[in-house]
## 1
Amino acid sequence: MNNVYFVGTAGSGKSTMVGAFKKWLDDNEIDSIIINLDPGAEKLPYVPDIDIREWINLEDVMSQCGLGPNGAQIAAADLMAVNIDKISSVLDTYDVDYVLIDTPGQLELFAFRESSQVVVKALGKERSLMVYLSDPTLYRSANGFVSTMTLASLVQFRMNMPIINLLSKADVLKENEIDRILDWYNNPDSLYGCLLDEDKDPESVIGMELFRALEDTGVFGEMRSVSSETGVGLPEIYAAVQLQFHGGDDSGKDD
């Protein structure tokens, strides 16, 4: 089994994308299951096969620990590591090609807490990758693009696993907007030029420094536009996942 972690900022469309991708896999007769790792999720657009809420209830954490919603989310993230053996035991009963893992809505609860490292290791880090969804509303300017990609790079550095970058919610963008954003990622020189055009903005100075840091670390390459509403990009996600795990061969079905 290969683990695909769906990661991104709150509102980037992680859960809806997990549900849409699961349906696409089902339609193409590719075995998969979903793990929900968000104990604070009130409603989900899919039925999880393994649900952290069976062991951790956010309201119970708030009541027992005397915490507010934010504090309870942090405590629940740490309790996830305490209960990881239970999750692993249930996961071991499945024999599927892919495990789609929906991470907490608050990105920092997954990416920057030590408990998440425990979870990832227990579920098999050596056969895992991240699908990072970026909210297009944060990409309206070149500076916004650079700051968002800086966050994605920090997440990859922190989690230390392969990453697939996606431009989420492509259905809310005009075609020329999609082309511009994808060009920024695929062609750093284009992004550099747009940063220069924004030079009148004081933030552009910081943006230029972040751009140079990103270019030096080699994070630019390929980004795909996707939409859980229209299904655009779902085959491309699968192709990218296959490339990471199997070198592009459609061999996951036989594992």
## 2
Amino acid sequence: MNELALDLSTPRALAWLARALGPGGASALDGAVPAALWRRALGGPAAHFLARPGKELRASVVRAGWLLGGRTGEPPEALVAALELIHAGSLIVDDVEDDSDERRGAPALHRLVGVPLAINTGSWMYFWALAELGALEIPGAVELAVGSLVRCHQGQALDLSVRVADLDVASAAGVVETITRLKTGALLRLAGELGALAAGAPMPVREAIGAFAERAGIALQMLDDLGSLVARRDKGREDLRGGRATWPWAWLAEVAAFTWSRLAARAGVHDVDPLADELYEIVAATGRARIRALLDGAETELARALGPSLPPGTLDAVAAELRRMERSYG
């Protein structure tokens, strides 16, 4: 059985929540306030979101960093939780900022509990995650996480403010790559580096693992952007209606610059179905080639950097888990 495989049948995050809010937990609640009030204010909104199944991609990357760092078995549960909580918090806040209607097959949290409570819940998850990391007493872990959160918010600022109409053929690819590297790439890099840091890996090994995770994160975001045009049409339509700078636009600038102005002018309108179909037809082959090249390159570079020092089968297990992640994005 793949050592990196995850059991998604139970909402482990709810157990994390119960431990964190209980006596002695990372976010223990003040007993002077009735439990019903705490449920309405914090526990209930958090449970609403954490009960929803996700890919647990960041948890897989933490495990990969742990294995590649030279350890066996499971990394500390709080380390896995911290990465998933940072991601969960970012999704809640992103949905408010994007005015999204759905997340993980259910209404976005702000649609259920209102914008103020949703923002507070998402922000609280960041600090809950940092508290979990601090309790592990892994030197440098909290500082590493804080630096990554800074970069994620820089990327989010670009993602929120830049629109396709602001770009031209020459700038599109660089802007989209930067947004992805600062958001998805930075968080995946954090997951890999924290796993390796907890495993006691030396700095060169941690850096190689972080670089691999960052490249994999960028490739998976490419898959998500491309797949959203056809497989998750609601999300794809959200990006197109908002005129968001995603990877299909970067590839369009590369392979069909002469159509850029015509298609870019159609972004940001309500009925974007024809645009999605045409954009996908033009860029799908190029996009899949770029994704495969990035993933293959990431694996090759990781094997070059770490292969001789790793236990037999470790790289194979990581590669297999990467393929699972790839399939999960359609």
## 3
Amino acid sequence: MHLNMSRQSILIVLALFCTYFIWGSTYLAIRFGIESFPPFLMGGVRFTVAGIILFVVMRYLGSAMPSAREWLGASVVGLLLPALGNGTVCYVQQTVSSSVAALSIATAPIWMAIFSSIWGHKITPKEWLGIAIGLVGIVLLNLGGSFDGDFMSAFLLIFAAASWSFGSVWGKHLAMPKGLMGAACQMLTGGLALMMVSAYAGETWPAEISSKSWGAMLFLIVLGSLVAYSAYQYLLKTVRPLVASSNTFVNPIVAFAVGVWFASEHVTMVEMVALGVILVGVFLVLSVTNNKDI
């Protein structure tokens, strides 16, 4: 029993590492990707290819073919997470920096708490305090001039966070294929939905694709989707909803770091202070986790 708990704890730490640092880097990868690819097409290709690869691998390893009910559950989550959640972020990143996109998604734990409460999850006072402190950090980041009056972009990013959070919580109560087959079906259905949106929007395959955009697409498919998305689905089944979504607090820090390093994005002193405040919020959210939670 103790060995199983230790193994699970290691897997949780590894999964959190993936969602913190890989997903924190995907915002810059999205920025590089949409330099060549239209946003919905890029998201569609990313998730469809990743979904097909993981589906084939899981079938080869012996996973059962999902039932119609399981396909339906996976499709609901695929629509809310990869399609509405990530697809909206790709669209908005045409006009905002990767750092700003990541920091705005940090509103997700608020939505996660609200939606979890619908299904009877009780949020502890310490978690609420962590959420409140994290929100103070987001307010500080906005006061630093991140959106510069672009309220539509801010609204769309909050909508993306709400869609992602609602799908994350609802998915725990839906029939879902077992193990990583669930992640495969979600990515596949979400990717196909984005491909349909891309076609409806009149997007076309780019005439020229830079090596930077191809590299970004490869990063998004392999690390952002196959590795990190699967890790996130594992966390949703294993830990408290707020712990699973705590990556949304850390992703802005990672996005700022890689944005400054690789894309010369500018960070103000107010934004640096805000990032420190967000880290305090993360600590409080994670510190309530115990064996009962995992």
## 4
Amino acid sequence: MEQIEKERFFTMAETYDAMAQTLVPMYDMLQNEIFNIVPFDKHQKITVIDLGAGSGILLEKILSLYPNSTGYWIDFSDAFLDAAKDRLHKFNDRVSYILSPLEDDWQIQLKRRPDLITSVSAIHHLEHEGKIALYNKSYNLLNNNGWFINIDEMKTLTQEAYKNSLVYWVKFVDNAREGITDELMDYYNKWKNHFDNWRVRNIENIDTPKIKGDDLHESFLNQIRWLQEAGFKNVDVFVKYHLWCLIVGIGIGDVATEVTDSSNLKVILLLKQLT
């Protein structure tokens, strides 16, 4: 990813951590719905991967609810890594951090196959082919009957409805200002400055071709199809709220694993090449 694109996101790390739950509509509701969907008992020893994990808000919820779980934080941002380590330090060695773009081979650093792969507001930055490749990779990595859940910004059925959902978010952020405390107003203003650029890119220039790293929104119908084509079963949309969709697939991984060092549980993941 180009440096100019990195800087756009890196400067948002602290602000995002402070403001996301206030300025992203239904942010907590969408994440909390995960726990109404997955079948895991709270005492199970599950392994979780959070893709584009940011400041670790979702991982904190998962590791808290499942006290025997372990998690992988995966993101490309040094700034978000610092924010996540600050938020997740209480979980000690239950969290492993992998600093990597989602398009790269981060899977070679895994020591365990996941039971759950999640992502929140990250995959939409990938290009068309990158989304498909990530869905395929996730399918191959999951344990048998593992769950993949993507909460993200997605296009709806018509262009008019899609634009209305973009405009709704702008109005939501503007209206939220009244409830921002003096202590958080600097964070709000920083968010708003970045969000004004988002508004220009996505609403005023809605018909302008986007580049890698922009908001490359895809139809939720397309993404359901891509999950199905990757091999996921029981694919569905569990929640849709304006721009945000929660889509789910259950996978049976197609990965060969080899334990080469039992003391370190070093696992080589050999991914099936999908065409």
